[in-house]
Write a structure and sequence with these properties.
16% of the residues lie in helices and 38% in strands. Helix 3 crosses helix 4. The termini are far apart. It is α+β, with helices and mostly antiparallel strands. The strands form 22 sheets. Strands 65, 66, 70, 71, 72, 73 and 77 form a 7-stranded mixed sheet that branches. Strands 11-10-9-8-12 form a 5-stranded antiparallel sheet. Its main location: endoplasmic reticulum. It is found in: Endoplasmic reticulum membrane. This is ER membrane protein complex subunit 1. Belongs to the EMC1 family.
Length: 1285
């Protein structure tokens, strides 16, 4: 149809229609064209111009999506800022006004799917302050960070501070004048009264002139006027300001409206200047502002928190808040000293009377005095309770899940150098983690994972900041309280560092790094000044400082490899001429610095050398006893010891020749308070000695393994030296101790060996005695007896609760676990986690409380490849078996998981490469037998049987097919085992090409239960699943790392009996990390698409078809090739691990557990990975429950079971079945800890909700029963009356 002529009614109607908004489904964002109906939109998408736009988008889809997202974000924020400013507004209101522009960017073209998701993203990125209101939705308020706005706010704040200062001064002057007037009037009245009394006593008349009044200060008498004592001999002091109550470290609430971002918000007091305080915003740590204390009020903590009284007779006394009486406006505080009732105080004093620290901040020590503080409130009628809520539902956080933080083996540690005990310790570990650990209880205050390409080489505490210096010369300054990055420095050229030293008096750090010309560059880091660099004329090996003379001694080599010395002036960075110390090429490693200017070290040839820095001389001081110098980390002459020490064979000797008795090891720890030596005696006890000879009490860290590293901080308290000691032992234990001349105690320990886990198993706890029997063997009488016993136990527990008054007490913790004892609960939710580490430690961890029940050290399993075998046969056995493939032998241990006892069952087995271990139960022996398959030679497999095997077990072994994975030859071998001659008969071998490497070999979990053997279709037919219990999944990838076209990932699915490949999948231009999970008749695997720079997920399902009938058993020899259905998806995050949920009966829908590199654990329902999803849905898909196909898989927040927890990359999962069909337990393993939680793929359909009102239901049921009997009685009465009539 031709276009209507301009001016005609048709043309006018078309133009009027085009002005308004049209339907979104007929809008093309790529072409920016709006169609008015479906026919027009169909014609548009078939046009050539639209096809060209789609081709452009297909080449780089992320580019267009990012462009649309940025435009949408900019326009939305511009409208929000100009229209509403910083006011709180409903997000739908802003969006409705935004879409009034018909040329706006539509949200379906951006990275955000919904307006709620976009609003949450704005709050997370700091563009706006968002909050959710029930029944209405999301609200947001724009955060204005415009420099002009901030400057204007600063001017307003400065003007308000000036006004406050002037008001304070004026108020003080007025108070002084009033006070002086009252005092003058009081003095005159006192003088007149005294004159009258004297004249009345002598009988003199008062009509004469009174005597001259004494000046204030001449009379030494004391008089009382209006119940106020005034000592006339004291001079009138200037009226002082009222004492301030605010203190550094307090958490306060801002009442002032001068800065909208701080109004009614909580903050952390960073600095106090008189009556003014600098407040740091808790939600926005980068925002700081100054307020007067009248504009602040403290917040009332929760019961059990620490408080401190700030005013009154009991000021500055700390205690624990035990009870809040809202109606009486009273609180109960416990303290060590006394218990009493205090007088009522006004509400303004009460809010200023408490100071508390949240658990994430530095914690005040708790006293235990019992104290009642009551207060009156005039305008406030309720108490605000504020807690740190960090999850979607506060009452669910930490109830059924927990997180165990580990850091790894510490490599560097730093204490605060102030003359006081340290509240926190900075640590850097082998896992490339920088963290701060509380010195009070060892909890992790914060931790940061450093970049993969960097390694921290030096760690300092400088001017109340943590300084980390990484390889390449990158210096970062961290805030100790929060871990926020304060400042960062980059050197001009990245190169390796040779040495770094800190200047205490100037808070300067000097580092030396090598350059390309064979010399060193000196880098000077200052906290608040730019980075400065200078060049040295030598290759620096060590830096020694002399702060008294502002000098730094540089020891190194020149171009001729001679040992030379260069002196650097710290102030102007000028250098003196280079002095040659020795013509020989001497390398300086670790050394000991002596206070007279000597550097003493022992080289690799056991030669001890002394370098005199002041005289620039070198001396060989090697003794006949061949002593090795004990080195230390002090590089400042002022704090260096007066002599050095050396290990001379089995004894320790000082420079003066003194031999230290009973010392097997010695360490030197210089500090700003003096030198301390740590000596280890034969009983494995440490003793610390100061320069004056005073020794501390002996300290034992426990454990049989030796201490690898010690870090010591000294401070003076009550004129006595005290030490804080951090020790790391070779078994992975980090211990913190306090030592003095009076006592030495270990405060806490951390098990950092959990950062290197070798094996993890989850075991059921032992049941009660009645449940030790097999339920299938219970008779009817036995069942009745068990039920009666359980009922008696319930009545006994109910009676105990009634007697103790805990019947109506709210249960704390997991509501489904009835007891915290190590016995199986009614739903089998309480588990025991068995962990074996790489260094030979074994742990038993309670899944309910994350407490370590027991720990044992097995040094024989250190660095061994170990397998954990559970005893077969019995329903519950507490013994498990560890088979370790060590360097020279195979070790075999039995472990009781309940007590932790370890027993070695044999001395040793011959060294071999173990391929597989199985546990066998023999009827003729009480102890289980082990079946060990080991590789003897290429293609030759040997079998070792430990224990006895009866005839029935031997016959069963003959009929069983085994498959073995040889990681050395990259082959999978299948065959059968001949019991008589202990020979493994190889029947098939799957060998991958040499250009590939196997990433993972897996089979379906042993606990995988099949509930349904078919899948119903819309036409009422059934598609039979391919349920092969012998299915093996092999994931392989190419060895190519550089050529994109040669990269690929292959997935093979084999039959474990015949070795037949039933399906294979090839993905080009892809590489690892590749992960796969197999369950029932489907498999899911992930890989990295190198071409598209994204993680892709492929889902495969196997079916036999619709003709095969239902079979009660499986026969791999006669089974046909299944039909495979495959579909690929795009993951929104990089995947690091995969697993699948399990259930007791298999009724619950399965979910795929996905661990991401960003530290999330996602429970994704299997329906999202259904390979039958179509791009264009069929009419029958809805009836079969098949969703339309969307390539990109995004993980909504409700699928993330780890919610806000920062776990780090998830390496593996361990899933355990519970007694509830809807629930399974999941243990996530990461490099920095463990995370335990529960998963409900189909919801908690078999458990009542936590808020289920049992009392109400009971009352209703009792009422119904009573009403039923009442109606029955009334009906009988009515019938009787009718019969009598």
């Amino acid at each position: 149809m031709p276009k209507a002529e301009r001016g005609t009614p048709k043309d006018i109607a078309n133009r009027q229609k085009a002005k308004g908004l049209q339907k979104l489904r007929w809008y093309c964002q790529m072409c920016e064209k709006q169609c008015r109906d479906e026919n027009g939109f169909k014609c548009h998408i078939m046009s050539e111009s639209h096809q060209r736009q789609l081709l452009l988008c297909a080449q780089n889809p992320n580019k267009f999506q990012d462009k649309f997202s940025k435009t949408f974000l900019d326009d939305f924020l511009y409208l929000l800022k100009r229209r509403w400013g910083t006011k709180r507004v409903w997000n739908n209101t802003v969006y409705n006004e935004y879409i009034m522009d018909r040329h706006h960017i539509h949200m379906n073209a951006t990275r955000w799917l919904t307006l709620s998701e976009f609003t949450e993203w704005l709050g997370k990125e700091g563009y706006a302050e968002v909050d959710y209101q029930d029944g209405k939705g999301w609200f947001l308020a724009y955060i204005d960070r415009d420099p002009q706005t901030l400057a204007r706010k600063k001017e307003i704040e400065k003007m308000l501070r000036k006004q406050d200062r002037e008001e304070d001064e004026q108020r003080i002057k007025i108070d002084m004048l009033i006070r002086e007037g009252k005092m003058k009037e009081a003095r005159e009245e006192a003088y007149l009264k005294e004159q009258r009394e004297r004249m009345q006593a002598t009988g003199e008349a008062l009509d004469g002139p009174l005597a001259k009044k004494p000046k204030f200060g001449e009379d030494k008498k004391t008089v009382k006027i209006a119940s106020i004592e005034i000592k006339s001999h004291q001079t009138l002091k200037t009226l002082q300001k009222p004492p301030r109550w605010v203190q550094v470290g307090a958490v306060v609430k801002v009442k002032s409206k001068s800065i909208p971002e701080f109004e009614k918000q909580k903050g952390f007091v960073k600095e106090v200047n008189g009556h003014k305080a600098v407040i740091q915003h808790l939600k926005l740590p980068k925002m700081k502002a100054q307020f007067h204390e009248d504009d602040l009020e403290t917040v009332i903590p929760q019961v059990g928190r620490e408080v401190i009284v700030m005013k009154g007779d009991l000021a500055k006394r700390t205690g624990t808040l035990k009870e809040i009486r809202q109606k009486e406006f009273c609180v109960l505080v416990e303290n060590l000293l006394s218990t009493r009732e205090a007088k009522p105080t006004p509400s303004s004093s009460f809010f200023k009377a408490f100071l508390f620290h949240l658990k994430s901040l530095s914690v005040l020590f708790i006293s235990t005095v019992s104290l009642m503080i009551c207060f009156r409130m005039r305008l406030i009628s309720f108490l605000p309770f504020f807690g740190l809520i960090s999850a979607l539902y506060e009452d669910q956080v930490g109830k059924v899940d927990w997180k165990l933080d580990v850091l790894g083996s510490p490599k560097l540690a730093a204490f605060d150098d102030a003359n006081a005990q340290a509240d926190a310790i900075a640590l850097y570990t082998e896992q490339n983690i920088l963290a701060s650990v509380s010195a009070l209880d060892g909890s992790v205050l914060w931790k940061k994972t450093m970049p993969v390409s960097e390694r921290v080489e030096y760690l300092f505490y400088a001017n109340k900041l943590i300084v980390s210096i990484s390889s390449g010369g990158i210096a970062r300054y961290w805030v100790p309280e929060s871990g926020a990055l304060f400042r960062e420095f980059y050197t001009s050229s990245p190169s390796s560092l040779t040495d770094c030293v800190r200047l205490f008096s100037k808070s300067i750090i000097i580092c030396a790094k090598n350059n390309e010309v064979g010399e060193s560059d000196l880098v000077i880091f200052r906290e608040r000044k730019p980075l400065s660099e200078t060049k040295a004329s030598i290759l620096v090996q060590a830096i020694i400082t002399n702060e008294e003379n502002n000098l730094a001694y540089l020891i190194g080599k020149n171009a001729q490899s001679e040992l030379v010395l260069e002196t650097l002036n710290i102030d102007d960075l000028s250098t003196e001429p280079v002095k040659v110390l020795s013509k020989e090429s001497i390398s300086i490693g670790e050394f000991a610095l002596v206070s007279d200017g000597r550097v003493v070290f022992t080289d690799e040839n056991a030669k001890t050398t002394s370098i005199n820095l002041k005289e620039a001389t070198v001396e060989d001081i090697s003794a006949a006893a061949n002593c090795k110098v004990i080195t230390h980390a002090q590089k400042e002459l002022r704090y260096a010891p007066d002599q050095f020490y050396g290990h001379c064979g089995s004894i320790v000797r000082s420079e003066s020749g003194e031999v230290l008795d009973d010392t097997t090891r010695m360490e030197v720890f210089p500090s700003r308070l003096g030198i301390f030596t740590a000596s280890l005696d034969t009983q494995n006890r440490w003793t610390f000695t100061a320069e004056d000879g005073k020794k501390t009490k002996s300290l034992s860290f426990g454990g049989a393994r030796k201490i690898d590293s010690l870090w010591v901080k000294s401070y003076n308290w009550k004129n006595k030296n005290h030490l804080q000691i951090l020790a790391f032992s070779e078994d992975g234990t980090v211990s913190f101790a306090k030592s003095s001349s009076e006592a030495s105690t270990v405060s806490w320990t951390r098990e950092e060996s959990l950062a290197s886990i070798s094996q993890v198993q989850i075991f059921d706890l032992p049941p009660e005695d009645a449940l030790l029997e097999d339920p299938s063997e219970w008779s009817f009488t036995r069942r009745v007896q068990i039920q009666l016993a359980l009922f008696q136990t319930y009545l006994a527990q109910l009676s105990d609760k009634i007697k103790s008054g805990r019947l109506f007490e709210k249960k704390i913790g997991d509501p489904l676990v009835s007891t915290s004892e190590l016995i199986r609960d009614q739903f089998n939710l309480h588990k025991l986690i068995f962990i074996l580490t790489k260094n030979g430690n074994i742990f038993g961890i309670d899944s309910l409380s994350k407490d370590i029940i027991w720990k044992r050290s097995v040094p024989e399993l250190d660095s061994c490849k170990t397998q954990v075998i559970k005893e077969a046969g019995a329903r519950f056995k507490s013994n498990i078996f560890l088979v370790g493939n060590c360097q020279n032998e195979v070790r075999y241990f039995s472990v009781d998981i309940m007590s932790g006892s370890v027993e070695e069952l044999n001395s040793a087995l011959p060294k071999s490469d173990i391929l597989r271990v199985e546990s066998l139960r023999s009827a003729t022996s009480n102890n289980p037998s082990l079946l060990i398959f080991k590789k003897l030679d290429v293609g030759k497999i040997g079998v070792e049987i430990i224990g006895d095997v009866d005839a029935a077990t031997a016959e069963k072994l003959k009929r069983t097919a085994f498959w073995l994975y040889d990681s050395t030859s990259q082959a999978i071998i299948g065959g059968k085992f001949q019991v008589e001659n202990k020979v493994f008969e190889n029947t098939w071998t799957f060998q991958i090409p040499a250009s590939m490497t196997i990433s993972q070999v897996t089979a379906a979990p042993a606990t995988d239960v099949i509930h349904s053997q078919g899948r119903p279709l819309a036409d009422r037919s059934v598609m039979e699943k391919y349920l092969n219990p012998n299915l093996i999944a092999v994931l392989a990838e190419s060895k190519e790392k550089t050529d994109l076209e040669q990269m690929f990932v292959n997935a093979f699915f084999l039959d474990g009996v015949t070795g037949e490949v039933i399906h294979s999948s090839n993905h080009k231009r892809a590489h690892g990390p590749a992960k796969i999970v197999l369950a029932e008749n489907w498999a899911v695997f992930s890989y990295w698409s190198a071409k598209m720079f994204r993680t892709e997920i492929t889902s495969v399902e196997f079916y036999k078809g619709t003709d095969d009938g239902n079979a009660t058993h499986w026969d791999s020899l006669s089974a046909s090739i299944p039909v495979a259905i495959q579909k690929s998806f795009v993951s929104s995050e990089e995947i690091s691990s995969l697993s699948v949920t399990q259930s007791q009966m298999g009724i619950t829908n399965k979910a795929v557990l996905i661990g991401t590199k960003s530290g999330k654990i996602v429970s994704l329902p299997r329906v999202f990975l259904d390979p039958r999803r179509r791009l264009v849905p069929a009419p029958t898909d809805r009836e079969e429950g098949i969703m339309p196909y969307q390539p990109e898989l995004r993980f909504p927040p409700n699928f993330v079971i780890s919610y806000f927890q920062n776990l780090g990359p998830v390496n593996d999962f361990k899933v355990a079945i519970t007694g509830l069909e809807s629930t399974c337990t999941v243990l996530g393993l990461t490099d920095t800890g463990l995370f335990w939680t529960r998963v409900h793929p189909s919801g908690t359909f078999d458990v009542l909700k936590d808020d289920f009102d049992h009392m109400m239901i009971s009352v209703i049921l009792i009422g119904f029963v009573g009403a039923t009997y009442a109606c029955k009685m009334f009906a009988q009465m009515k019938m009787t009356n009718r019969l009598w009539q």
